[in-house]
Automatic annotation (TrEMBL):
GO terms for molecular function: calcium ion binding; peptidyl-prolyl cis-trans isomerase activity. Residues 247-306 are annotated as: Disordered. It comes from Psychroflexus maritimus. Residues 1-21 form the signal peptide. This is Peptidylprolyl isomerase. Keywords: Signal. InterPro entries: PPIase_dom_sf, TSP_type-3_rpt.
Length: 306
């Protein structure tokens, strides 16, 4: 069953995590949630076994080379292909989630045009996307380029997407669609469950509890995003340096800073407590009018009433 945009909607994951417990469903019994380190180790073995026993193919699209598919096949004794684990395009990095280190493997078949920016963990990306389980069950398929918000994607996916770039240029077709230069970034990421859905995958997705998942994608564009329009790019509102904008709420009003137009809750809009140059670009360092070490836009004691 394919559920459009399902794995990318973080709010859906939060809701699923809180309400999908069913007394009759042992997989979703939170009293028995497994140890993340133990699951991490098991997932690493599962992912590396997949990389050692599978190869990939790029399925070309003769009518539109912007819409290729990355397909995984199991090796057998008659296969002359090399396993993914031996690919020159396979890279990895370690990311930390709640004190647990995870190895994130990703195929960087092509990074993208070197003159295009890499997105941050809080930006928006224009891409095609396919999601499948480690068993190769497809749970997501977005074959037409779509803007997706990294703040709403699972950690493992967004940490991969920051390693790619978009295409150099594009042309607009008569029907309003776009055709991109053949230098866009594309690849795949193999995501441990600890930086995906862990114990509670979205209902109906076909993803099992604690199961690693795989995303393949083609990135055509990215853009720096300012979700609340306060003049501060969302990635700069990650004051906790967790690479997750959801956990920074300076005035404790229930709205994280990246969607809060008054971050310190002093009644003065954040946009009015920072400065911009004549071209509208944000100026840093941020103003600290009373010199107390806290920027005005985060300081509820500034301005003060006489």
């Amino acid at each position: 069953m394919k559920l459009k945009n399902l794995p990318l909607i973080l709010l859906l994951f939060i809701v699923a995590f809180n309400i999908s417990c069913d007394d009759d469903d042992d997989d979703n019994d939170f009293a028995d949630v497994r140890d993340p380190t133990e699951v991490r180790d098991e997932n690493k073995i599962e992912i590396e076994n997949f990389l050692e026993t599978h190869y990939y193919e790029i399925e070309e699209n003769s009518s539109n080379n912007n819409l290729r598919n990355l397909v995984f096949h199991e090796l057998d004794e008659d296969t002359e292909e090399s396993p993914i684990i031996e690919s020159e395009f396979l890279e990895s990095k370690v990311i930390t989630q709640q004190g647990v280190d995870y190895t994130l493997y990703y195929l960087k078949i092509r990074e993208g045009n070197s003159e295009r920016r890499k997105p941050t963990f809080a930006d928006s990306v224009f891409l095609t996307l396919r999601g499948q389980t480690i068993r190769k069950t497809v749970f997501e398929d977005i074959p037409n380029p779509t803007w997706l918000d990294n703040t709403q994607s699972i950690r493992g996916l967004r940490e991969a997407l920051v390693e790619y770039r978009g295409a150099g240029d594009f042309t607009e077709n008569n029907d309003g669609t776009f055709f991109f230069d053949d230098d866009f970034g594309y690849g795949a990421v193999f995501v441990p469950s600890g930086v995906a859905y862990f114990a509670v995958p979205p209902t109906g997705s076909g993803i099992r509890s604690y199961e690693p998942i795989i995303f393949s994608f083609q990135m055509y564009r990215s853009r720096e995003t300012d979700h609340d329009g306060d003049g501060i790019p969302s990635w700069l509102e990650d004051l906790e340096d967790t690479r997750d904008v959801l956990d920074t709420d300076s005035n404790n009003d229930g709205s994280p800073n990246f969607i809060d137009v008054d971050d310190d809750g002093d009644g003065v809009l954040t946009r009015d407590e920072v400065e911009f140059d004549e071209d509208g670009n944000l100026i840093q360092p941020f103003p600290d009018s009373n010199g107390n070490g806290t920027p005005d836009y985060l300081d509820p004691t500034w301005p003060t009433e006489d």
